[in-house]
């Protein structure tokens, strides 16, 4: 008997990977930018840590809520499409068979073979065949609101904790530069990790996240320096 070669496809990771990378990236960029901006305004170390901690908690809750709402909307749309497809299969199976046949013909099969494939797949699981080949819905790509929410909140918290830890450990003199330098290293590592897990070019990902992170931190540092008023 021939052995089936098991393949691990990267699309299996796309749901949690997207939420985790987005959350961690946002945690690093937003918290480091916030702390740098406040530091540039002359805030005390205790004020920096308080501000950063508040930003971590608020950001994590915001990421969780935003992911849950957006992915829930996607799940609702998928459920509506599934219900519609079920109804169409129940009321007009001949049309659905013809629709599936046309899809296979468009992919290169001749009419007779396309009909044969459509018949066999519909006999086994008509709904699954239509969801996959007509609508592009698969189990791996299904919307999972709770998974996305938890992944985003946890990833944001981990990302936000890194510049906060730097602010706590680094010397007060040149604190903004210490936080910015460490945060760029964290972003580069995150970009490389996300690229590796997603099978994307590493250098491109590192440059992309580092550039936008540096831009955000420079912008908030500039805004903070305009105030230059010590915050107790």
Keywords:
mainly alpha, 232 residues, single chain
% residues in beta strands: under 5%
Mean pLDDT: 82
Quantity of strands, as a count: 0
SSE order? HHHHHHH
Main sheet overview? none
What is the distance, rounded to the nearest whole angstrom, between the alpha carbons of the first and last residues?
A: 75 Å
Sum up the overall morphology in one term: elongated
Per DSSP, the total helix count is 7
Low-confidence stretches: none
Structural class: mainly alpha
- What fraction, in percent, of the residue positions are helical? over 70%
Tally of separate domains? 1
Rg, please?
Answer: 25 Å
Structure description:
The protein is mainly alpha-helical. It has one domain (12-227). It contains seven helices and no strands. The protein has helices spanning 14-40, 45-91, 93-106, 111-133, 145-169, 175-198, 202-227. The radius of gyration is 25 Å and the shape is elongated. The model has no long low-confidence stretch (mean pLDDT 82).
SSE topology:
Elements: H1 14-40, H2 45-91, H3 93-106, H4 111-133, H5 145-169, H6 175-198, H7 202-227
What is the structure about, briefly put?
It contains seven helices and no strands.
């Amino acid at each position: 008997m021939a052995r089936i070669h098991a393949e691990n496809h990267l699309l299996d990771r796309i749901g949690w990977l997207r939420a985790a990378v987005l959350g961690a990236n946002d945690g690093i960029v937003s918290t480091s930018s916030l702390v740098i901006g406040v530091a540039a305004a002359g805030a005390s170390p205790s004020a920096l840590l308080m501000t950063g901690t508040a930003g971590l908690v608020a950001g994590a809750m915001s990421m969780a809520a935003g992911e849950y709402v957006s992915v829930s909307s996607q799940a609702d749309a998928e459920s509506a499409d599934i219900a519609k497809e079920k109804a169409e299969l129940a009321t007009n199976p001949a049309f659905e068979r013809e629709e599936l046949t046309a899809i296979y013909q468009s992919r290169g099969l001749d009419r007779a073979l396309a009909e044969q494939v459509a018949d066999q797949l519909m006999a086994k699981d008509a709904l699954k065949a239509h969801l996959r080949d007509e609508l592009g819905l698969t189990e791996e790509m299904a919307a999972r609101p709770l998974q996305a929410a938890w992944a985003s909140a946890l990833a944001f918290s981990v990302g936000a904790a890194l510049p906060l830890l730097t602010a706590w450990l680094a010397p007060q003199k040149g604190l903004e530069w210490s936080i910015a330098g460490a945060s760029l290293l964290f972003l580069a590592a995150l970009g490389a990790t996300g690229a590796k897990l997603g099978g994307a070019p590493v250098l491109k990902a590192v440059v992309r996240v580092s550039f936008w992170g540096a831009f955000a931190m420079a912008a908030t540092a500039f805004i903070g320096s305009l105030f230059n008023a010590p915050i107790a």
